[in-house]
Design goal:
CATH superfamily of chain A: Glutaredoxin
Order of helices and strands of chain A: HHEHHEEEHH
Number of domains of chain A: 1
Number of domains of chain B: 1
Largest interface: A-B, 36 and 35 residues
CATH topology of chain A: Glutaredoxin
Strand order of the largest sheet of chain A: 2-1-3-4
Radius of gyration of chain B: 17 Å
Number of strands of chain B: 6
Shape of chain A: globular
Structural class of chain A: alpha+beta
Strand content of chain B: 25-35%
Helix content of chain A: 40-55%
Oligomer: heterodimer
Number of strands of chain A: 4
CATH topology of chain B: Heat Shock Protein 90
Radius of gyration of chain A: 16 Å
Number of helices of chain A: 6
């Protein structure tokens, strides 16, 4: 059974890292989690980002957060990527699989996946 | 929405947006019914607002003019011969004791009820997004209870470690998974 002792061990291990964690978040991944997003499948997309960012060792510079309805519900699940000094990238009709690709090619590789962005999907 | 856990996520987000810092989520299975309650200490609503809540064309949001969260839940409750009630005290009139309690009752074994789905993902999503809120989660079944309290976790972790840290989230996933396995074995 998962015990509180185990949680204490996590605490002790993490306490040293706390200072570093606040130091930088260069990239912010924002997932729309209003009714429209949730109904369209945003929860697995969010989980894929949370898991992927941690497992790929990106947690020091990428934060994953949630937001409400962005106003273009028909394109949910919507994910916005904010990066310092760069234009915001808006991904639409996301899935957990696409999220994994975005982590690999955009967050790690630095190249947004144009075919999943709003400009491409609408036009 | 295809699974009940998504309704729970969606409805609980209303409490988050009401500015609550304490939110209790309770699922209680008893006989043929499932009772879902969310109790928060958020800003509350006026009686007029509560009355309008099940109207899909009512919302306070500015980004779109249709609000579907509560109407969806009400529809699911009513089609399984259950009910939905909302009690609320608005901050303006109840400065010391404000908040909202939503109670939805479902016919758990009714043919129109939907699968419960992944409650663990719903709880994790809430904590990941809002690690500073004290969520309490209780799923009470005749076979046992799955319980999680963010306040209790925070007492162990201290102030500096966010509940949204991946290591902590993974611990929570493991803890809830084991809790569910235990009651499923009975």
């Amino acid at each position: 059974m998962k015990s509180l002792e185990e949680l204490m061990a996590i605490r002790d291990k993490m306490q040293d890292k706390v200072a570093v964690r606040h130091a930088s978040d260069d990239i912010r991944v924002v997932v729309g989690m209003a009714t429209c997003g949730i109904a369209a499948g945003a929860r697995p997309v969010l989980n894929a980002f949370v898991e992927g960012v941690a497992n790929e060792g990106l947690a020091e510079r990428v934060t994953v957060t949630q937001t409400g309805c962005i106003g273009i519900c028909q394109y949910e699940p919507i994910v916005e990527v904010y990066e310092k000094d760069k234009e915001k990238v808006t991904y639409v009709k996301m899935t957990a699989e696409k999220a994994k690709e975005v982590i690999e090619r955009h967050l790690k590789g630095g190249k947004p996946i144009t075919e999943y962005t709003i400009g491409k999907v609408i036009s | 929405m295809e699974e009940f856990s998504l309704y729970v996520l969606d409805i609980t987000m209303n409490s988050v947006r009401a500015g609550a810092d304490k939110i209790e989520i309770k699922l209680e299975e008893q006989g043929d019914t499932l009772t879902f309650t969310v109790t928060d200490n958020g800003c509350g609503m006026s009686p007029e607002t509560v009355k309008k809540l099940s109207d899909p064309f009512f919302t306070t949001r500015k980004t779109r003019s249709v609000g579907l969260g509560v109407p969806f839940l009400k529809m699911l409750a009513e089609q399984t011969e259950g009910s939905l009630t909302i009690e609320s005290k608005e901050e303006a009139t109840h400065p010391d004791d404000h908040g909202t309690k939503l109670t939805a009752v479902f016919g758990y074994h009714h043919i129109d009820f939907i699968p419960l789905g992944n409650m663990i993902d719903t709880v994790m999503t809430l904590i990941q997004g809002y690690p500073d809120i004290d969520f309490t989660y209780d799923h009470i079944t005749p076979r046992g209870t799955v319980h999680l309290s963010c306040e209790e976790l925070r007492a162990v972790l201290g102030e500096d470690i966010s509940l949204a840290s991946y290591e902590v989230l993974e611990w929570i996933r493991g803890y809830l998974t084991e809790g569910y396995e235990e009651i499923d074995q009975k």
